[in-house]
Amino acid sequence: MKYIMALDQGTTSSRCILFDHAGNICASVQKEFRQIFPQPGWVEHNAAEIWDTTLEVSRAAMDKLGVTAADIAAIGITNQRETSVIWDKATGEPIANAIVWQCRRTAPIIDKLVAEGYGDMIREKTGLVPDAYFSGSKIKWLLDNVPGARERAERGELLFGTIDTWLIWKLTGGRVHVTDYTNASRTMLFNIHELCWDKALLELLDIPESLLPEVKPSSHVYGKTEFELYGGEIPIAGAGGDQQCALFGQCCFEPGTMKNTYGTGCFMLMNTGREPVKSVNGLVTSIAVGFEDHVEYALEGSIFVAGAAVQWLRDELGLISSSHECDELAEQVADTGGVYLVPAFTGLGAPYWDMYARGCVVGITRGTTRKHLARAVLESIAYQVTDLMTCMRQDAGLEISLLRVDGGASVSDLMMQLQADLLRIPVDRPAMVETTAFGAASLAGLAAGVWRDLDELRTLRRSERIFLPGRDQYDCEAAYRGWKRAVACAQGWVEKA
């Protein structure tokens, strides 16, 4: 039997999952890595640590199943998207820590671009709202602030990549410097209409094009792994940003189908087909998937902090000892007692796009307990997703009758029920919630001939539970109005320099 290896490189951990032809998980290994916070609002990762953990979990998954390189048909990679690495072409050493998608240090660069009137041009070319979230300003910051980096880049000595690019480069022993259409579309440097790096944007941010990887389809054989890594060569045959892979793994192949992933952040995507849809409600337009002969587009709403708020309760406040305990506490109270938590720890994403918002808790009384806070954290995730759905309905102009869900926090029955109540539509949780990894595996498997076509992939998805709206609609609407008031308290908290 041949297996497909999915390398799921996320914001807080690296994971490897081995799937069989039927889409079953046969082995899974995960390892967390350090989150680095040098200053308030700054977030970094050590790219070497990301590579080491990725290699470690992939070897461990193979050992767990007792397979060799000859048993792996292909590798698919999915990754935290906008996180940016620059490294030395000759040595393979990063010039600095990777700047993570959550990091807000480049907000002044974005402010300057918008103030100079480039916001509409950026939006038109890239489909993105100008924001520190995307890779472009992160690259500029590294070139401007790491000693000697700009000069070395102009001499062609450095390479840039999002994490997919970094891993493919490492896996192939530095032979292949590529990204796929989905990751390229999140850099704020890629023209999503012409499907190329945009020279005007590169000039605007003073980024040499020699830094950038070649852009390829999401389902494509990019190269083979170095023999010594796994004791044989394995084709690397698929890559995609984590949210696009989740959309693909949920079999959202038709225009109008959509999913929401509950991970460190929350990301709602709708497939809009072969034509991009421009948002007027604070969403962004990205490439959903790139094939050899065409690309398909997606509308996307991004929430910066979702599951990370549960981690905050556990790691920073010490109010819970595990993520599961958050659910257990929240279930012990009927509501939050009027408490709202807005987890704007690194600003607010869609639809607010407020880089200067910060987290707040409102409505606290003397009777507020950690049970209420735990429930407020879960509700904050459901409210943010409701924000996105409201925008998605308006932009797409389509009646949305179902939301497919996945990601770690989707295992919470309480939160999925809260979500169905607020959205007033069924919420469909699949039997296998690792849809991001399966999306990467699917892209690789299609390129490697493991699966024939999209129809065959459709047969592999099964629903585990569908949550239906149960709570009174009037109560839900009143609670949501309270959320909007709480958000207003969090906005614009940090004074601009």
Short description:
This protein is α+β, with helices and mostly antiparallel strands and 497 residues long. 36% of the residues lie in helices and 23% in strands.
- Major sheet description: 7 strands, mixed
Distance linking N and C termini: 59 Å
DSSP strand (E) fraction? 15-25%
β-strand number: 23
Helix content: 25-40%
Contiguous runs where pLDDT drops below 50 for at least 5 residues: none
* Assembly level: single chain
**Average pLDDT number:** 94
Shape by Cα distribution: globular
**CATH class term of one domain:** Alpha Beta
Question: From the coordinates shown, what is the CATH architecture of one domain?
Answer: 2-Layer Sandwich
Strand order of the largest sheet: 17-18-16-15-21-22-23
Helix/strand/pairing category:
alpha+beta
- CATH fold-level label of one domain: Nucleotidyltransferase, domain 5
**How much is the radius of gyration in Å?**
22 Å
CATH homolog superfamily of one domain? ATPase, nucleotide binding domain
Number of helices: 17
Care to describe what's here?
The structure is a single chain. The chain has helices spanning 47-65, 107-115, 119-126, 135-145, 149-154, 163-171, 181-184, 199-205, 227-230, 242-249, 307-315, 323-330, 370-396, 413-423, 435-448, 454-458, 473-490; strands at residues 3-9, 13-19, 25-32, 44-45, 72-79, 85-88, 98-99, 158-161, 178-180, 190-191, 196-197, 214-216, 219-224, 235-241, 258-262, 266-273, 284-290, 295-303, 340-342, 360-362, 403-406, 427-430, 463-467. With 497 residues, the protein is an alpha+beta fold. The protein has a domain at 3-243: Nucleotidyltransferase, domain 5 (2-Layer Sandwich), CATH 3.30.420. A seven-stranded mixed β-sheet has the order 17-18-16-15-21-22-23. Strands 3-2-1-5-14-13 form a six-stranded mixed β-sheet, sandwiched between helices. A two-stranded antiparallel sheet has the order 4-7. Strand 10 and strand 11 form a beta hairpin. Helix 11 (307-315) packs antiparallel against helix 13, helix 12 (323-330) crosses helix 13 (370-396) and helix 13 crosses helix 14 (413-423). The model has no long low-confidence stretch (mean pLDDT 94).
